[in-house]
Each structure stands twice: as structure tokens, then as C-alpha cells.
């Protein structure tokens, strides 16, 4: 599964069927899957992690839950700040007549933060709350489609730098996160912190890629992805619960 993540990072530029206007149906489908994952997996798991925070920090349940969501909000705010820096840099570059690309320094900041998110996701292949085979499959499907959407957006911002450096950095982040997960097992509280931070980051990336009007996203592929993945998650939950 980590190797599949690497393949997406390295080969996203060769998936020419994604380069369409209006937005490729596959990208909108992937965005729908990611949104369903946020609402049916991430948000419920964030709520359940309140007990872990309460035990580790010796807090009342409501205060512990607030800390969980505060950490998710931190992830969202951090990635929003980076995405905003990319947008402003592109605008400045256009004003200078230097093309519709962000400055290389801003690109590297964006790449480092994205690589951190990728590494966390790969680490969680080995350490999640639901360690069942079906739970792993649900996580993997959502994340590999999420990477397709996120990497396509990152490459669109600076295709030359992404092809030369970016895809390899993200590939190494995938392998590094997976390898770290095989060697180091964080305590339950540490896993809960990583997942909360990851949740905020994924929510921002999904909304950023699907909601802006200039994306010309397709509603029905988005809806199909959302419904199919929701059915998959609910079915998996039913089977595990049964």
C-alpha cells in the first residue's frame, strides 16, 4: 500500500486523462470519496479520541474533546496558511509578468508541509484505531484517491518543480512514514494526536480542491464517489459490529 502511494506521487503527471476542463470526473469522484471519509471516519474518530485525551491529560471529557478538535483545527489552519501563501505568491508572480506560478521558496514550504501530511498517513498504515483488514482497506482507498487529488493540485501549481523534485520528495515521505511505522510504535495518545492533526489537514485539502468555482468540479461524479464510499464504510462498520 505504501508502494501504491509512491506510484501515485511519481506517476501523477502521466495520468493525462486528469488534465481536462471542466474538471476530470475521476478527480471529482476522488474528492467525493475523501469528503465521505472525512464525515464517516475522521469526525467520528476525533470524537472517540476524547477519551484518550481525557485519560492522558487527566481532563474532564468535554475539555478533552475540545483539545482534540483544537488540534484538528491547528492542522486545518496550518495547511490553510500554506495554501494561502501559494495563492498570494501566484498572484504576485502574475503581476510581475513572470507567469502563473508561485515562487520556488513558497513551493518548497508547500512541499514540506504536504510531505509531513503524507508521512503521517503512511505511518498510520501500521498504527490505527481500527486495525482490521477491512478497516485498513477503507483507509487505503480513501488515502490513495486523496493523494491523486492533492498531487494533481500540487503539480498544477508548479509542474516543473513538481516533476523534478516534488514527486520524489513525496515518494520518500511515503516510504519514510511507512518505515517509521514498522520501527516505532507511538503510545495511544501519540496516535490520537497524529490522527487529529491529520484530520484537520485532510479536511482543508479536500475542500480546497473541490469547492472553488474555478475548479469547475463535476457534481454527479462527486456525488457518486461520496455515496459509494459511504456505502462501503457503513457496510464495513456493520460487518465489524456484527
From TrEMBL:
It comes from the Bacteria. The keyword Nucleotide-binding does not apply. Keywords: Membrane, Transmembrane, Transmembrane helix. The chain crosses the membrane at residues 24-43, 66-86, 106-125, 131-153, 165-183, 189-207, 219-240. This is ZIP Zinc transporter. It comes from Parapontixanthobacter aurantiacus.
Amino acid at each position: 500500500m505504501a508502494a501504491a502511494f509512491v506510484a501515485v506521487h511519481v506517476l501523477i503527471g502521466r495520468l493525462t486523462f486528469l488534465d481536462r476542463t471542466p474538471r476530470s470526473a475521476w478527480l471529482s469522484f476522488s474528492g467525493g470519496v475523501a469528503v465521505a471519509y472525512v464525515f464517516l471516519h475522521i469526525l467520528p474518530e476525533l470524537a472517540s479520541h476524547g477519551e484518550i485525551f481525557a485519560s492522558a491529560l487527566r481532563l474532564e471529557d468535554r475539555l478533552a474533546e475540545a483539545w482534540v478538535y483544537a488540534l484538528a483545527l491547528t492542522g486545518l489552519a496550518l495547511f490553510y496558511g500554506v495554501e494561502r501563501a501559494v495563492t498570494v505568491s501566484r498572484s504576485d508572480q502574475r503581476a510581475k509578468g513572470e507567469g502563473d506560478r508561485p515562487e520556488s521558496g513558497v513551493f518548497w514550504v508547500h512541499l514540506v508541509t504536504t510531505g509531513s501530511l503524507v508521512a503521517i498517513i503512511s505511518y498510520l498504515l501500521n498504527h490505527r484505531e481500527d486495525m482490521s483488514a477491512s478497516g485498513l482497506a477503507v483507509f487505503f482507498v480513501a488515502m490513495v484517491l486523496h493523494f491523486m487529488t492533492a498531487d494533481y493540485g500540487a503539480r498544477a501549481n508548479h509542474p516543473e518543480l513538481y516533476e523534478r523534485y516534488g514527486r520524489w520528495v513525496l515518494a520518500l515521505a511515503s516510504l519514510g512514514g511507512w518505515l517509521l511505522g514498522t520501527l516505532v510504535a507511538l503510545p495511544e495518545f501519540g496516535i490520537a494526536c497524529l490522527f487529529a492533526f491529520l484530520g484537520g489537514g485532510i479536511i482543508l485539502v479536500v475542500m480546497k480542491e473541490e469547492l472553488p468555482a474555478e475548479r469547475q468540479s463535476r457534481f454527479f461524479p462527486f456525488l457518486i464517489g461520496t455515496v459509494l464510499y459511504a456505502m462501503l464504510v457503513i457496510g464495513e462498520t456493520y460487518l465489524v459490529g456484527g
